[in-house]
Design goal:
Largest sheet: 6 strands, antiparallel
Radius of gyration: 28 Å
Distance between the termini: 76 Å
Shape: elongated
Number of helices: 4
Order of helices and strands: HHHEEEEEEH
Oligomer: single chain
Structural class: alpha+beta
Strand content: 5-15%
Length: 231
């Protein structure tokens, strides 16, 4: 009887002997894998883009609030003297810094301890976009790193995620100017009153092909400008 039962059982198509996948089937599987991989990369890129954008918005907001509070407390003054240190500009930077919750400050020629170079150069070269090695800098409680461009200006750099990568201008690093009522940020200025984004102020010397060598022109144009605040 057992033999009769075995004879009446029809083999399932799932267990039919096959010689492997056909070329067409293999190509379909490879194609599907490619589609999934592309979609995954697109999602990762989108998430990173949102993170960069959010970091920029937050940095602009907290710096603007700090400047406003320092103005309210009348701790920002006209700046003319660029030497000796602390210069008038240094004092204004320190006044702005005092409005942050600071976890570390670097004001003794130890800029690199707060503003990690990440492979990018230091030096007082006004078209390079890099901070002077003796610039004042600090890390706030949220982990953002802030630095002067140099001691004779209220051009301020931010790295929105501190020492973490990518450490690239236009991605996690951005440039702000703190201007007086005449739109001046250095040399001889009245008390600073407002924060602007470097590109909106009409200056492109901070993010040049030298300073932003890690990004294409398209990239750092994309990541600069207050349009980020409204998108």
């Amino acid at each position: 009887m057992l033999n009769d039962i075995k004879k009446n059982i029809k083999p399932s198509c799932l267990f039919l002997n096959r010689g492997g996948f056909t070329l067409a089937e293999t190509l379909i599987v490879v194609g599907l894998i490619g589609v999934v991989a592309a979609a995954t990369l697109g999602i990762v890129s989108y998430i990173q883009d949102v993170q960069f954008k959010t970091g920029f918005k937050k940095a602009f907001s907290v710096l603007s609030q700090a400047v406003l509070k320092a103005r309210t407390e009348d701790s920002l003054t006209a700046a003319k003297n660029t030497l000796p240190r602390p210069t008038d500009f240094d004092k204004n930077f320190l006044a702005i810094m005092s409005e942050f919750k600071v976890q570390k400050q670097c004001i003794n020629d130890d800029n690199s301890q707060c503003w990690e170079a990440g492979g990018e150069k230091y030096g007082l070269n006004f078209s390079s976009g890099y901070p002077y090695s003796g610039s004042y800098s600090f890390i706030d409680a949220s982990g953002m790193a802030w630095s002067q461009f140099y001691y004779g200006s209220l051009c301020i750099f931010v790295d929105t995620n501190g020492f973490k990568k990518p450490n690239q201008w236009g991605k996690d690093r951005f440039v702000f100017y703190v201007l007086d009522q005449n739109g001046v940020d250095e040399t001889s200025m009245e008390a600073p009153i407002k924060v602007v984004v470097a590109d909106d102020w009409g200056t492109g010397n901070i993010c040049t092909s030298n300073a932003c060598g890690t990004a294409s022109n398209k990239d750092y144009k994309k990541y600069y400008g207050t349009r980020w605040l409204y998108e």
